[in-house]
Design a protein that fits this description.
2 copies of one chain form a homodimer. In chain A, 56% of the residues lie in helices and 14% in strands. Chain A is α/β, with parallel strands linked by helices. Chain A folds into 2 domains: 3-148, NAD(P)-binding Rossmann-like Domain (Rossmann fold, 3-Layer(aba) Sandwich); 153-260, 6-phosphogluconate dehydrogenase C-terminal fold. In chain A, strands 2-1-3-4-5-6-7 form a 7-stranded mixed beta sheet, with helices on both faces. In chain A, helix 4 links the parallel strand 4 and strand 5. Chain A starts with 6 loop residues before the first strand and ends with a helix. The interface between A and B is large, with 89 and 90 residues.
Chain lengths: 262, 262
């Protein structure tokens, strides 16, 4: 295969993840072109000439972008998106293009140097030709691939992103509300709490709109957050009533889950 | 100073943290003796002969142990406890012994190999003689000391231990309740979520009674948990109503706190 003859197009490729994949595909030997609001090449022109079109625009405009560009893709081309949601974008790609479709979610941020040891979810939705190519490419750089349905992916992200980010955001709010100086908390921190403070600080250095979109667009986020509030209520009641047995019961239940998952 | 002539007594020294400090004081060159329910030496005999008595029994029996042994300590001796609470134990040490008193909280677990880079809170409550000795000893092994009042310590632990442990426990409950196999979650994990799963798993490998006691005995835990539930409620409402502005406001507030704490 002459890699250079395969143009990989990145729509919205000036964003951080877009730039990451631009470097990645370029290093792998492919011709990479980008198009966006500020490029001379228009997204439509890019869609026409790409063998692989990667949609890497914000979640809020992903489906509209797919709708706009899908019709210009060749039937033997591949269209993929990189958002942290899969159901709606995959449905849009199937509906608005005739190309092969692989919903893709790289589970890492743009600061990572390489794919090594990083998880990537693939939701192959149409076609057989490009999937082996994409798997080989990611695996050859050490990525761990997980094949899932879009629905299963979104349910999992309700936990991996929705629950964890919300819990960290609430923790940031509570710590800020406590008025305890951050420097004092640092000097009374356990190794565990030091990590937690780092995670919370990192979250709050990110773009709030991106986090809001991750929470709002995935329909599985709200139910998992409601479960979390229920579980928290049970624990807080146990603390209020000093019920050791309730805490022991919680430990027993979660340990059983952890054990069964090995 | 002839270190060997100074007997450091550990009451309840067969527990994990007791063993850790037995090794630490021994390596530092002191004579260390322990007494507990299973030793030939009784706690009272140990209290009589110790220049430094370290109370390292479970929180639930700490004050009773201090009450029992305090009267046997020499006036120029030192009594210290190692619990994660300071107000009640320090009050008990002041009340039931005539010795110097330093409430002590090592902010690390028994798995740590050395003091290097670890935080220790000291709450000196009576006497001038032993404090420089204890500070020098901990600092010479790389420990970071923080001097606080017992009340300030307990308020800080409401966050460092109460809030963080409860949030992790609730997360364990919610993840278990989701019925998602742990192995699937691992293969769709971000680097951040991998760390989170490790923290949650580590928590649930500990003793539930110890965690229950940390939550129940510190009066500052319940109010901070109630704040956390309020903050979480606000976030969940923002998710339900898809209010991006509310998420942006949260980010702005927490960022201001982080900035002011530098």
């Amino acid at each position: 295969m002459d890699k250079k003859s395969i143009t990989i197009g990145l729509v919205g490729g000036s964003g951080k993840m877009g730039q990451w994949f631009r470097r990645f595909f370029t290093a792998a030997g492919y011709s990479v072109e980008i198009a966006g609001r500020k490029t001379a090449l228009t997204p439509v022109e890019l869609a026409r000439k790409s063998r692989v079109l990667v949609v890497t625009v914000p979640i809020a405009v992903t489906c509209a972008t797919i709708k706009e560009l899908g019709p210009y893709l060749a039937k033997d081309a591949l269209i993929m998106d990189l958002t942290s949601l899969k159901k709606e974008p995959v449905e849009a790609m199937l509906k608005y293009s005739g190309a092969e479709v692989i919903g893709t979610h790289p589970l890492f941020g743009p600061r990572e140097r390489s794919l090594k040891g990083k998880n990537i979810v693939l939701c192959p939705a149409r076609g057989q030709r490009w999937l082996p190519w994409l798997k080989d490419l990611f695996q050859s750089y050490g990525g761990h691939l997980e094949i899932m349905s879009p629905d299963e992916h979104d349910r999992a992200m309700g936990i991996v992103q929705g629950l964890v980010h919300t819990a960290h955001m609430a923790m940031g709010m509570t710590v800020a509300g406590s008025k305890f100086p951050l420097s004092t908390l640092g000097s009374v921190a356990t190794p565990n709490f030091k990590k937690k403070l780092q995670q919370v600080r990192r979250l709050f250095s990110q773009d709030p709109t991106l986090y809001a979109q991750m929470l709002f667009y995935n329909p599985y986020v709200l139910p998992i957050l409601e479960s979390y509030m229920d579980d928290l209520h049970r624990l807080v009641s146990a603390v209020r009533e000093k019920e050791t047995a309730a805490v022991e019961k919680v430990f027993a239940g979660v340990r059983l889950y952890i054990k069964s998952g090995k």
